[in-house]
Amino acid sequence: MPAKAPSTPSFVSEQLAALGAKICARRKALKVSATALAEAAGMSRVTVHRIEQGEPSVTMGAYLNALAALGMRLL
Question: How much is the pTM?
Protein backbone atom coordinates (compact mmCIF):
# COMPACT_ATOMS: atom_id res chain seq x y z
CA MET A 1 0.00 0.00 0.00
CA PRO A 2 1.43 3.45 -0.92
CA ALA A 3 2.50 5.79 1.84
CA LYS A 4 0.16 8.61 2.73
CA ALA A 5 1.31 11.99 1.40
CA PRO A 6 2.38 14.43 4.09
CA SER A 7 0.00 17.27 4.84
CA THR A 8 0.74 20.61 3.23
CA PRO A 9 0.80 23.70 5.45
CA SER A 10 -1.79 26.29 4.49
CA PHE A 11 0.81 28.96 3.66
CA VAL A 12 2.44 26.56 1.18
CA SER A 13 -0.92 25.78 -0.41
CA GLU A 14 -1.60 29.51 -0.73
CA GLN A 15 1.78 30.16 -2.37
CA LEU A 16 1.30 27.30 -4.84
CA ALA A 17 -2.20 28.53 -5.68
CA ALA A 18 -0.83 32.04 -6.30
CA LEU A 19 1.99 30.69 -8.48
CA GLY A 20 -0.47 28.55 -10.44
CA ALA A 21 -2.72 31.56 -10.97
CA LYS A 22 0.21 33.62 -12.27
CA ILE A 23 1.19 30.84 -14.67
CA CYS A 24 -2.40 30.57 -15.90
CA ALA A 25 -2.74 34.33 -16.32
CA ARG A 26 0.53 34.55 -18.27
CA ARG A 27 -0.48 31.64 -20.51
CA LYS A 28 -3.79 33.29 -21.28
CA ALA A 29 -2.20 36.72 -21.81
CA LEU A 30 0.13 35.13 -24.37
CA LYS A 31 -2.87 33.32 -25.93
CA VAL A 32 -1.13 29.96 -25.49
CA SER A 33 -3.28 26.86 -25.10
CA ALA A 34 -2.67 24.46 -22.23
CA THR A 35 -1.76 21.83 -24.81
CA ALA A 36 0.84 24.09 -26.43
CA LEU A 37 2.31 24.95 -23.03
CA ALA A 38 2.44 21.28 -22.13
CA GLU A 39 4.33 20.46 -25.32
CA ALA A 40 6.76 23.35 -24.83
CA ALA A 41 7.39 22.37 -21.20
CA GLY A 42 7.66 18.63 -21.89
CA MET A 43 4.70 17.54 -19.82
CA SER A 44 1.09 16.50 -20.20
CA ARG A 45 -1.85 18.87 -20.46
CA VAL A 46 -3.16 17.35 -17.23
CA THR A 47 0.04 18.35 -15.45
CA VAL A 48 -0.35 21.92 -16.74
CA HIS A 49 -3.88 21.94 -15.33
CA ARG A 50 -2.62 20.63 -11.98
CA ILE A 51 0.08 23.32 -11.91
CA GLU A 52 -2.47 26.04 -12.64
CA GLN A 53 -4.56 24.71 -9.75
CA GLY A 54 -1.51 24.89 -7.44
CA GLU A 55 -1.43 21.21 -6.58
CA PRO A 56 1.42 20.40 -4.19
CA SER A 57 1.93 16.90 -5.59
CA VAL A 58 3.39 18.31 -8.83
CA THR A 59 7.18 18.40 -8.78
CA MET A 60 9.02 21.69 -8.46
CA GLY A 61 10.78 20.84 -11.71
CA ALA A 62 7.44 20.75 -13.53
CA TYR A 63 6.52 24.17 -12.12
CA LEU A 64 9.91 25.53 -13.26
CA ASN A 65 9.54 24.00 -16.73
CA ALA A 66 6.14 25.65 -17.12
CA LEU A 67 7.56 28.99 -15.98
CA ALA A 68 10.49 28.72 -18.40
CA ALA A 69 8.22 27.79 -21.31
CA LEU A 70 6.28 31.01 -20.67
CA GLY A 71 9.41 33.14 -20.34
CA MET A 72 8.95 33.54 -16.59
CA ARG A 73 11.29 33.08 -13.65
CA LEU A 74 10.56 32.00 -10.10
CA LEU A 75 12.95 34.48 -8.49
Answer: 0.90
